[in-house]
Design a protein that fits this description.
48% helix, 8-stranded mixed sheet, single chain, 596 residues, alpha/beta, 4-stranded parallel sheet
């Protein structure tokens, strides 16, 4: 863990794993009590592998979804006043909610007493992150009152306010006006003028994105053209101004179109966000908007995106992904479609908690070129700790004196990303080798076997496969045998490998598709002059999640190429494996069986 944190308030982290058993136990209890421990709650918390899709951690460090100051206060147990102040604000918000929405005095009194009891219970040992306490208290309120969304009407009003402002003649004239000063200062080339115009328009839209009066009050009803021009004059500040404009291709030489994950925040604000997003799609970018999974005060959620009259109309034509888990191949197809705005839920009811996000969110996080987050709540979670992520992250929020504050946290320099085109190029190289082998009269054999399906045994699995394939090469003449274990590279995971191999497998050049049998494994250990270890006894390709997927592909390919032979265990035995745990190379259920 880093010694120093580069943030507004530098915090020295005093906890380091392995130095003190009592602190290690407190650290583990912290994750368990906050319901953020994967091993305690595997159905709700992201696996360590899923977390690596989004966060680059080192030395077995565990990511926590709070500021470094908050984490240090909990771990050190010596900053009670800071924690209690945060807890008090949580309780105050819930009490204000009860007071404003519950009319019956008896019901109100009961709810207030219940919330206070639960609040004291959750905060007495000062181990809970305040936002986690708030989530539990809010759930009690929702469950007891049977109110689906306490702020549903308020959010609808906010969206209407902004929509009316952006549809007003005053705004339309202001956003399109070009005065003489602008003309005189414009560049002399067409390319320069284009960049200049894009810079002006995006700055104007960003100016509105931090103007809370547009959605929190009815002030904008009386706005005239001059009022909007005043808003457009805001300063853009922060270390992210130039990186963001460069990332979007508005400044600098980076004019490639991008896939952008946009983390939506407040209702009302989202209508301005969509004006920005639609402008970005005109520039050729593809934007995936992540909404909250359910009610969180005035934050905009996935239900709003589908049902709110104003918001759903603004999202007409967008592609909605309602599934919480889709595979890489299907996701790639969606990202390559002609839909430039895609809508998902992040899977949480929190400001920003990557430990609880859905699998589809994690996969998208990993596939995009950068992330744009909104507002101070998300900024605090992302920028006020030392963690670095697998993608560049920007934040747009209101700065001092009403300025546009753009913050930037670059991805960790050691992050390796294999793009779709990278994987396709690797597949093409293998296909070319297969084609050449067939052209020379050879037989092409693809060998599918266990690589990662026995957790922690990847190296020996690769050794078994290579030894047996070498044995086959000695036995067979004029054959080109593909050994998948030779093509793994650092940074690749199951998603990457399966995407690459499916391209190869569907090429039509495979003559024999051989699936690893138990006899193959026995022969490999005999060739190594070793006895078969207990974890390998009885195993074959049917034990592998990847091989199960590949058998389905093989059967599909055989329909198109009936001459292709399939050798190995019977098809029926393959149906026991289902789906990878995200980022894993084995069936999620095997984690529990093997206590990994």
């Amino acid at each position: 863990m880093e010694n120093k944190i580069e943030s507004d308030n530098q915090v020295k982290i005093t906890y380091r794993p392995g130095e003190n058993t009592e602190k290690d136990a407190w650290h583990t209890a912290f994750f368990i009590e906050n319901h953020m421990d994967y091993f305690a709650y595997p159905d709700h918390v992201a696996s360590p592998e899923q977390v690596t899709f989004m966060i680059y951690t080192e030395n077995d460090e565990r990511y926590y979804p709070c500021s470094d100051r908050m984490f240090e206060a909990i771990m050190s147990k010596n900053d009670s006043s800071f924690l209690q102040e945060k807890y008090k604000k949580v309780l105050q918000r819930i009490m204000e909610l009860i007071d404003s929405q519950i009319e019956d005095e008896r019901d109100k009194s009961f709810l207030e007493a219940l919330i206070k009891i639960k609040f004291l219970h959750e905060t007495q040992d000062e181990m809970m992150i305040p936002s986690r306490v708030e989530k539990r208290l809010l759930k009690i309120y929702l469950d007891r009152t049977l109110i689906d969304d306490p702020f549903l009407c308020e959010k609808a009003i906010r969206n209407k306010r902004v929509s009316k402002a952006l549809c007003s003649e005053a705004f339309k004239k202001a956003i399109n006006q070009v005065d003489n000063t602008v003309i005189l200062n414009s560049p002399s080339t067409l390319a320069g003028i284009k960049e200049f115009v894009e810079h002006v328009e995006i700055k104007r839209l960003l100016s509105l994105s931090v103007e809370k009066s547009l959605w929190e009050s009815d002030e904008s009803k009386a706005y005239k053209e001059v009022d909007f021009h005043e808003l457009f004059n805001r300063q853009m500040i922060g270390n992210g101004v130039k990186p963001l404009l460069n990332f979007l291709g508005i400044e600098g030489k980076d004019d490639q179109t991008k896939k952008i994950l946009w983390l939506a925040d407040e209702s009302g604000e989202i209508i301005v966000d969509l004006a920005i997003i639609k402008y970005l799609t005109k520039l050729g970018h593809k934007v995936i908007i992540a909404f909250k999974d359910g009610p969180l005060y005035t934050k905009v959620d996935f239900f709003d995106a589908q049902e709110d009259e104003i918001l759903s109309k603004q999202l007409e034509g967008a592609f909605f992904i309602e599934e919480k888990n889709i595979g890489k191949n299907e996701l790639v197809g969606i990202l390559r479609s002609d839909k430039n705005i895609i809508v998902i839920s992040d899977g949480t009811r929190e400001n920003f908690n990557l430990l609880l996000t859905s699998k589809v969110f994690s996969r998208i996080f990993r596939e995009v070129d950068g992330i744009i987050s909104r507002g101070h709540d998300q900024k605090r979670r992302i920028f006020e700790n030392h963690f670095q992520f697998t993608r560049d992250i920007f934040n747009i929020s209101r700065g001092p004196d009403g300025s546009i504050l753009i913050s930037y946290k670059p991805k960790h320099p050691s992050v390796i990303k294999f793009s779709h085109s990278d994987l396709e190029k690797k597949a093409k190289i293998i296909i070319d080798q297969m084609e050449e082998a067939k052209r020379n009269g050879g037989t092409v054999i693809f060998y599918s076997g266990i690589i990662g399906s026995i957790p922690g045994k990847i190296q020996i699995a690769k050794k078994i496969m290579s030894v047996f394939i070498d044995f086959l090469k000695d036995q067979f003449a004029m054959t080109f045998i593909i050994n998948p274990s030779e093509y793994f590279e650092i940074g690749m995971d199951a998603d990457d490998l399966m995407y690459m191999w499916e391209i190869v497998q569907r090429s039509g050049y495979i003559d024999i598709w051989r699936f690893q049998s138990y006899d193959d494994i026995v022969n490999a250990f005999q060739a190594m002059d070793k006895k078969v270890p207990p974890e390998w006894v009885g195993k074959d390709a049917t034990y592998s999640t990847g091989c199960t997927k590949e058998m389905r592909i093989a059967l599909d390919v055989q329909k198109k190429h009936p001459e292709m032979q399939i050798i190995g265990p019977s098809v029926e035995k393959f149906m026991r494996r289902n789906e990878y745990g995200i980022g894993k190379m084995y069936d999620q259920r095997l984690s529990e069986l093997c206590h990994i």
